[in-house]
From TrEMBL:
<feature type="active site" description="Schiff-base intermediate with substrate">
    <location>
        <position position="200"/>
    </location>
</feature>
<keyword id="KW-0460">Magnesium</keyword>
<comment type="pathway">
    <text>Porphyrin-containing compound metabolism; protoporphyrin-IX biosynthesis; coproporphyrinogen-III from 5-aminolevulinate: step 1/4.</text>
</comment>
<dbReference type="GO" id="GO:0006782">
    <property type="term" value="P:protoporphyrinogen IX biosynthetic process"/>
</dbReference>
<dbReference type="GO" id="GO:0008270">
    <property type="term" value="F:zinc ion binding"/>
</dbReference>
<feature type="binding site">
    <location>
        <position position="221"/>
    </location>
    <ligand>
        <name>5-aminolevulinate 1</name>
    </ligand>
</feature>
<keyword id="KW-0627">Porphyrin biosynthesis</keyword>
<keyword id="KW-0479">Metal-binding</keyword>
<comment type="similarity">
    <text>Belongs to the ALAD family.</text>
</comment>
<dbReference type="GO" id="GO:0005829">
    <property type="term" value="C:cytosol"/>
</dbReference>
<feature type="binding site">
    <location>
        <position position="210"/>
    </location>
    <ligand>
        <name>5-aminolevulinate 1</name>
    </ligand>
</feature>
<feature type="binding site">
    <location>
        <position position="278"/>
    </location>
    <ligand>
        <name>5-aminolevulinate 2</name>
    </ligand>
</feature>
<comment type="subunit">
    <text>Homooctamer.</text>
</comment>
<feature type="active site" description="Schiff-base intermediate with substrate">
    <location>
        <position position="252"/>
    </location>
</feature>
<dbReference type="Pfam" id="PF00490">
    <property type="entry name" value="ALAD"/>
</dbReference>
<keyword id="KW-0456">Lyase</keyword>
<dbReference type="InterPro" id="IPR030656">
    <property type="entry name" value="ALAD_AS"/>
</dbReference>
Amino acid sequence: MTIPAPGRIRPRRLRRTPALRRLAAQTRLHPADLVLPVFVREGLDEPRPLTSMPGVLQHTRDSLRHEAARAVEAGIGGIMLFGVPAHRDAVGSGATDPDGILNVAVRDVVAEVGDALVVQADLCLDEFTDHGHCGVLTPSGVVDNDATLERYAAMALAQAEAGAHLVGLSGMMDGQTGVVRDALDAAGHHDVAVLAYAAKYASAFYGPFREAVESQLEGDRRTYQMDPANRREAAREVAIDVAEGADVVMVKPAMSYLDVLADVAASSPVPVWAYQVSGEYAMIEAAAARGWIARRSAVTESVLSIRRAGADAILTYWATELAGWLAEEQ
Ligand code: PBG
């Protein structure tokens, strides 16, 4: 068998030098497109490292302000706050208490950074409930969709009062976007943006996050988060959230759902963000710690793949560090 020579068509021409590769690059990462998720723990004296997320901390109120200031210096686009309360109950009272840890943290960070970052708050009850579900339960233990919506509306108001620029609805209750939009508008918070976790899957890759927020969950979230088998359903979820007034839609997790992300990016009329979740972080850190993959290039490639699939912005625990690398490469 004779192998035909490539002749005139030689794709390698554009790969020959760093300058050619840089000019030919179709996708670029920029610090402004990165959002840093952070955890703040009520009643903590010292920041606490997380075993399953090496390099990530549960912050004190003080260390959180410091982390936010570093994020500003790195030029990233935003920060997403998760609160870990000292006490929990069946309805997640801490979520709507103005003195609850998440609302306090929003005020702290806004006081620290003002408008230099988009200050975002996770709008979900799971960190605040003693059963660990994202909503309140019926007497028989099922997550009660419509009763949960009332809690979300109250939580949105508490976060808006605290100064959040954007609320991130990660609970996957039907109707959550519309209810929260209406509640914000009725209270005069027309300017607070709503990020809808439109396509959020019931994923094993949230494992390390459960340590980070000291989750009380037993069982799983498969009656409200999406089935990993489903691709078409994401379009439906996005359409609903957009119709209900979502300013941004999210696909989560990212790397195992790049097909879904590409679909959503191709059709969404609003910006599409993706969340590179705790398990994605942990996998790369674990392999890198063993010397099995090159950490910096694996991190960069993973985030680039999410951008290439169509994410306009990416939530990643590497946001600040990656922004530093990008600045170095400039
Ligand atoms: C729910 C929420 C979760 C994550 C973000 N928001 C956990 C879950 O749905 O079980 C996971 C994020 C991550 O794994 O990094 N409030």
